[in-house]
Specification:
Elements (H helix, E strand, L loop, with lengths): L1 H6 L1 H4 L3 H26 L5 H22 L3 H25 L8 H23 L11 H23 L6 H24 L6
Keywords: Membrane, Transmembrane, Transmembrane helix
């Protein structure tokens, strides 16, 4: 995924937010590597690592899609959503869930729902603009599609996983959702055109 971004770097050279996207993907990779080393090899609690990544993931994508919006009313709605989520997160961490020893599961579900809402707001704006004519040539569309598919699949699977064994099936489905999302990202880097990025 990162290699596809760097190979096609000339297409995204002028886009700060795509560069930040690549940095976020690199951070996600480092999170997985460090969590494996700390959790599996050293057998140390990884909740702080995954909770931090989880919150960074939600806020990154919410601000990413805020950046893409042109309509002032839609931007205000998304800013309101981000503010509510920030307050909700602060309350949960302060009073209900120990950030260092428990997974922020409710934040994970609500954050994913809010990301889906933000993408739908972005898509609604695309449908009303001329950009719809060149949708497949924009890396933003492919990132949006990948993130949307992942989160739409993740929400019900995660909720169901709370009531069943949280192991094998959940990991397999999450793996395939990640594969689907990464495929969208890679496709975007390959087929997008510089002038639409």
């Amino acid at each position: 995924m990162l290699s596809a971004g760097f190979i096609n770097y000339s297409k995204i050279r002028d886009s700060l937010y795509i560069k930040l996207f690549l940095i976020f993907i690199a951070y996600s990779l480092l999170t997985e590597i460090s969590a494996f080393i700390i959790g599996v090899l050293l057998r140390i609690n990884t909740f702080p690592i995954y909770n931090t990544w989880n919150l960074m993931n939600h806020f990154f994508y919410l601000f990413f899609f805020l950046h893409l919006l042109q309509n002032s009313l839609k931007r205000k709605i998304l800013k309101f959503i981000i503010g509510i989520y920030a307050v909700f997160t602060a309350v949960v961490i302060s009073f209900y869930v120990d950030f260092l020893s428990k997974f922020l599961s409710i934040n994970s579900v609500i954050g994913s729902i809010l990301i889906v809402i933000s993408i739908m707001i972005y898509f609604s704006e695309l449908l009303q603009s001329d950009e719809i004519l060149n949708l497949k040539k924009s890396i933003y569309f492919w990132i949006s599609l990948g993130v949307l598919l992942f989160n739409i699949g993740f929400i019900p699977v995660y909720i169901i996983a709370e009531f069943i064994v949280f192991g094998g099936v959940f990991k397999i489905i999450t793996f395939f959702l990640n594969l689907l999302m990464i495929s969208c990202f890679v496709t975007g880097f390959i087929v997008s055109k510089k002038e639409y990025n």
